[in-house]
Amino acid sequence: MKLKWNKILILAGLVILVALATAAAVTPAFKNIPYLGKYLPLIKDVTLGLDLQGGVHVVLEAKDTPEAKVTQESMQQLMAVIQRRVDQFGVAEPVIQQQGRNRLIVEIAGRIDPEEAVRNLVKTAYLEFKTMDGKTVVTGADLKDAVESKDPTSGQVKVDLTFNAAGAKKFADATAANVGKPIAIILDGKVLQSPVVKEPIPNGKAQITGYESLEEAHNIAVLLRSGALPVKVEVVEKRAVGPALGADSLQKSKHAGLVGVLAILIFMIMYYRVPGLVADFALLIYALIVLAIYVGMNVTMTLPGIAAFLLSLGIAVDANVIIFERLKEELRAGKSLRSAIDAGFKRAFTAIFDANATTLIAAVVLYFFGMGSVRGFAITLGIGIVASMFTAITVTRWLLHLLAGSGLVRNVRAYGA
Amino acid sequence: MHFIRLRKIWYIISLLVIIPGLISLMVQGLNLGIEFTGGNLLEVRFENPVPVEKVRQVVSAQGLEFSRGIQKSGTSDYLIRTRHLTQEEQDKLMAALNSLGKYTVLRNESIGPTIGRELTTKALLALLVASVLMIIYISIRFEFKQGIAAVIALIHDTLVVTGVFSLFQIEVDGAFVAALLTIIGYSINDTIVIFDRVRENMLHRKKGESLEDIVNASLWQTLTRSINTVLTVVFVLVALYFLGGSTIRNFILALLIGVVSGAYSSICNAGPLWVDFKLMEKRAKVKEARA
């Protein structure tokens, strides 16, 4: 058999193409090119989980109290309030979702102080203005706005409150009726101040003073703007990961992953020779496909997720191993290279299919019963299983045929026979 | 070597590994992490190294029972495990630690007791559902008896891993459940590849060829694949274990033990067990015929 140059060209083109795609996916060299830079490199666009970039995962549970029962409506209100509070942290893509009847999951990633964030999330922030005889004049629900400020000359820090139309009317009536008497400003049952009304206030404006720093005033203003929590809330689960640990984990698992993958690649070439090289190449294509799926489906990459990705490389290799072992047998049985490749794939298929199907069952069960990072693990594992089956059955087969047909490597011993 | 004729030896080896683990499970149970029991875990990194006694002093001065202990997790990193703390208690503890020098919080996890109970139920349910689904799948694609043999091999792997974790009192957390399910996935994978070969060889069964010989031949034909696959996975896992950082080390360890056990049980338990089931069926039929 002579060398078939058209097949060699396709093969060479393919190698160059995959090499380029790999480079584009992982190197930041293309970052500054307009248009292209937006889509390349892929690896930059993989969303990192809390455990890899730092952040906090909180599960809030709403509790029934005599004053406020937990209903679907109050959960909706609670979610809206929490949403407004989280928005104030100014972080990208926070997650807020209801779980079950009475729980909210909140995930905030990025460089925030997680303890402070959680404290501010669960503050009730129920504001009341009360007269001396205990009558409630206005509440936080009547607020239109709350803004903190610092007087440049006196240095006094205050929060300016603006009531909405109805609130302003109530406030005007109450101040008119209570001239010379104090009105208490109460936040979460704690009296902040009890200023004496000097004259009726018709414009619906009031202020709270006595803060030590602008930051403290800012936190209060945020809470007041976002509104009071409609129900009692408890933190039942909190996982805060500092950015230092996140960066550390990412760095370490990348390193470990690289070593593990290199070991696989070398092993495959040493043991399976030419098919091993083909498998390694297919593995590269597999990794690119999976990476693209992660970005396309916006999969959040967590620490267990990285482990799952690396494990799925094992599954991808396994499919190739099954095929190559079959190929060897067929060659030893005296078949020609091309028919041995076809027969090898045909007979390996049921094994690969059934084996992957059962592993997929485990991944799906894991997804439905798992929470948080375990779910991320299940998704990455699932994607890995499906993609590995695809590459093993299509890409490896095509590559082997190309190689065999090209006449580059004709000695059947190179294929393991 | 005839795998099937030696099957009693394989069963004994399995039992020798599993029984100590089972006894340990009954006597001392598992070292359950805060995800199961509820509690607090605070990991801090001091800028300057601080002796462990100092950390212990500060924590106990807060009146916290630290039965779960304080553990050094890096050159100047400490893991402090306590009962479930309220936010105020956590704040107080973190403020008190300031007296030992500047530090950063690496992680702070606080899990309420209800979450832990839910996790346990869900974990057991997940294992059960996965097993049942797999038996159903194998019964459809292969046969019911092979499904049972495969699931016994899975239970074997689950017991080996939980047994080892109990024996050495290695902490078990939520990720452990994920590890168990992954192990199950891998082990069944191995078993299926072997049964697939058995299925094929049964079709071309020669006259007078015994069941034992067919299964033995199938095991040998798939042996290189079984070993190579485990090897590649072990490469990755060993790299992750030593280089991947402390947060996932226990998770990786569980996978490592499980994957090796999975390969063993697929070769030495699943196939031979199926032969035993088949032989039992045959004997029962013979008896019936006689009666």
Brief write-up:
The complex is a heterodimer of chains A (417) and B (291). By secondary structure, chain A is an alpha+beta fold. Chain A has helices at residues 5-26, 36-39, 50-53, 72-87, 114-122, 165-177, 214-226, 243-296, 303-332, 337-369, 373-406, and strands at 47-48, 55-63, 95-99, 103-109, 127-131, 136-139, 143-150, 157-163, 183-187, 190-193, 205-209, 232-241, 300-301.
Using DSSP, what is the number of strands of chain B? 6
Cα distance spanning the termini of chain A: 19 Å
- What do we call the CATH homologous superfamily of the largest domain in chain A? Multidrug efflux transporter AcrB transmembrane domain
User: What does the largest sheet of chain B look like?
Assistant: 4 strands, antiparallel
Content of β-strand of chain A:
15-25%
- CATH homologous superfamily of the largest domain in chain B - what is it? Multidrug efflux transporter AcrB transmembrane domain
How many DSSP H or I helices of chain B?
9
Report low-confidence residues of chain B grouped into runs of 5 or more. none
Broad structural category of chain A: alpha+beta
Summarize the helices and strands and which ones pair or pack.
The complex is a heterodimer of chains A (417) and B (291).
Chain A: H1 5-26, H2 36-39, E1 47-48, H3 50-53, E2 55-63, H4 72-87, E3 95-99, E4 103-109, H5 114-122, E5 127-131, E6 136-139, E7 143-150, E8 157-163, H6 165-177, E9 183-187, E10 190-193, E11 205-209, H7 214-226, E12 232-241, H8 243-296, E13 300-301, H9 303-332, H10 337-369, H11 373-406
Parallel strand pairs in A: 1-13
Antiparallel strand pairs in A: 2-4, 2-12, 3-4, 5-6, 5-9, 7-8, 8-11, 9-10
Helix pairs in contact in A: 1-8, 1-11, 4-7, 8-9, 8-11, 9-10, 9-11, 10-11
Chain B: H1 7-27, E1 31-32, H2 34-37, E2 39-46, H3 52-61, E3 70-72, E4 77-82, H4 87-97, E5 103-111, H5 113-141, H6 144-167, E6 171-172, H7 174-203, H8 211-243, H9 249-290
Parallel strand pairs in B: 1-6
Antiparallel strand pairs in B: 2-4, 2-5, 3-4
